[in-house]
Design brief:
alpha+beta; PH-domain like; 3 helices; globular; three-stranded antiparallel sheet; single chain; 2 domains; 7 strands
């Protein structure tokens, strides 16, 4: 009788253990993807006293606004939530405008970027959006290859 109840409980316990293991694997895969930084750029110093930073990883974009000494605001945006991204280039610098679903229709504006950084950022984000929409797996690809392919994909769109 004792062995029968042990068998019943162990058979009930196994599906929950398998589900927990798969959840842990999924979480660890997501965590590994957010550790991979694809691009990190800053605004130009003399024109912004406290330079803003844009960090792009496989899942999201972090925009870090440095307002004053030791104060900052961080906006994290998932690639799926971006509706439009535009790089407006002037004679010296470029401005990046990111429109999302959640910031009440007002675009996030990041001025005083190097032109090449703004254009690369725009292409990379467009490439990530297209890759996510098409369901292309991005993990396991070398960073240099991934950057080249995402930029090419963003250029085509």
């Amino acid at each position: 009788m004792k062995s029968k109840s042990t068998t019943i409980f162990s058979s009930i316990k196994k599906p929950f253990e398998n589900r927990r293991d798969s959840t842990e694997n999924t979480l660890s895969n997501i965590t590994r993807g957010s550790e991979i930084i694809l691009l990190k750029i800053k605004t130009v110093f003399p024109f912004t006293l406290f330079p803003d930073i844009i960090i792009i990883d496989l899942h999201k974009i972090n925009i870090i606004r440095n307002d004053f000494f030791l104060t900052k605001r961080v906006n994290s945006i998932n690639h799926e939530d971006i509706l439009n991204i535009a790089a407006e280039c002037g004679p010296l610098f470029a401005t990046l405008k990111i429109t999302t679903r959640f910031f009440s229709g007002k675009p996030i504006i990041i001025p005083y970027l190097k032109k090449s950084d703004a254009i690369l950022t725009k292409r990379l984000i467009h490439g990530l959006i297209v890759a996510h929409k098409k369901g292309v797996p991005l993990r396991g690809v070398e960073i240099e290859t991934l950057l080249k392919n995402l930029e090419q994909l963003g250029k085509a769109e």
